[in-house]
Write a structure and sequence with these properties.
Radius of gyration: 20 Å
Strand order of the largest sheet: 1-7-6-5-4-2-3
Helix content: 40-55%
Number of strands: 12
Shape: globular
Structural class: alpha/beta
Number of helices: 11
Strand content: 15-25%
Bound molecules: pyridoxal-5'-phosphate
């Protein structure tokens, strides 16, 4: 399996990949835990965009690190000036691309800016590219490991949960500089142990035979994203962004109610969404909607969302 992954990684990174530098993990979750717990010591500064996938902050907290959240620009991309400032003296920068929860895709020029900010430093990067096959921008997706100045300091974190919809199989992998992967392997061996053979066999079949399915599902998610966005456009008080990747919409809302309360209210109306605040303080007054669902569920869910927000608005008037 690691030989197949090495071949895949060589196509992305454009350099030779040694199988010894690949660690097969129990999903992206265990890969992220092994990386963060092996890199971060108490007091280390860890820079994390805000909002972003919530696991990063939780893991840095477990390791005793100091989280430095960096608010995004209005278009939900990085605010490069703020990022450059925050990165001074950082032990680690963790990000995902495409992004859960915002659905945006960081461009090659954003990654080049990151590369230049880190030039001459010993800051480590974790690039969580769980959704790399789900890019709808029409531009070729740029992985952090394509850029030499990032590759030399980056743990690339990948999973079979999104591209192959193998979430329940719990398998993913890390690739990066040998010393970082060896440290992560010690944590993974201690907390998780090796992956079982059956799951590795299934993942190998996915890599070898499921390319056409991944492409078909990418198109399906892109269509579902547009379907959800069109339906959301009819709901007053929501601010929408264009779906660029992953399978999420992250609309802002204009009610002066915390997102946790909005979500609890909506659940009573029969629709489940995530509160924006779960992804960082700057995610407040947003909701995260997933369109990894059927067309019918998306249309019915958005209808209930609209009715629920209307009822909430009237109850607070
Ligand atoms: C950005 C990102 N990374 C990693 C994961 C973890 O996925 P898994 O542990 O199923 O591989 C998720 C799951 O939602 C995610 O959104």
């Amino acid at each position: 399996m690691r030989e197949a992954l090495a071949e895949k990684l060589e196509q992305v990174a454009g350099v030779a990949v040694s199988t010894g530098d690949i660690l097969v993990t129990q999903g992206g979750t265990a890969g992220l835990a092994a990386s963060i717990l092996s890199i971060v010591n108490p007091g280390d500064r860890v820079v994390i965009p805000d909002p972003t996938y919530s696991l990063y902050v939780d893991l840095v907290g477990m390791a005793g690190g100091e989280v430095v959240p960096v608010p995004l620009a209005d278009d939900l991309h990085w605010d490069l000036d703020r990022l450059a400032d925050a990165l001074r003296g950082a032990r680690l920068f963790v990000f995902c691309n495409p992004v859960n929860p915002t659905g945006i895709v960081h461009s090659r020029s954003e990654l080049e800016a990151l590369e230049s900010f880190l030039d001459g430093t010993d800051t480590v990067v974790i690039s969580d590219e769980a959704y790399s096959d789900l890019d709808f921008t029409g531009r070729p997706f740029t992985s952090a490991i394509e850029l030499p100045g990032l590759r030399e300091r980056t743990i690339y974190c990948q999973t079979f949960s999104k591209s192959y919809a193998m979430t329940g199989w719990r398998i993913g992998y890390l690739w990066g500089p040998s010393d970082l992967i060896q440290a992560a392997a010690r944590i993974h061996n201690t907390f998780n142990g090796s992956m079982n053979t059956v799951v590795q066999d299934a993942a190998l079949v996915a890599i070898q035979t499921c390319g056409p399915d991944v492409a078909r599902m990418r198109d399906a998610y892109q269509r579902r994203g547009a379907l959800m966005r069109d339906a959301l456009a009819g709901i007053p008080g929501l601010t929408l962004s264009a779906p660029e990747g992953a399978f999420y919409q992250f609309p802002g809302y204009d009610l002066d109610v915390p997102s946790v309360e909005v979500v609890a209210f909506l659940r009573e109306q029969g629709v489940a969404v995530r509160p924006g605040a779960e992804f960082g303080a700057n995610g407040e007054h947003h909701l995260r909607l997933s369109y990894a669902a059927s067309d019918e569920a998306i249309v019915a869910g958005v209808e209930r969302l609209g009715a629920g927000l209307d009822a909430l608005r009237r109850s607070r008037a």
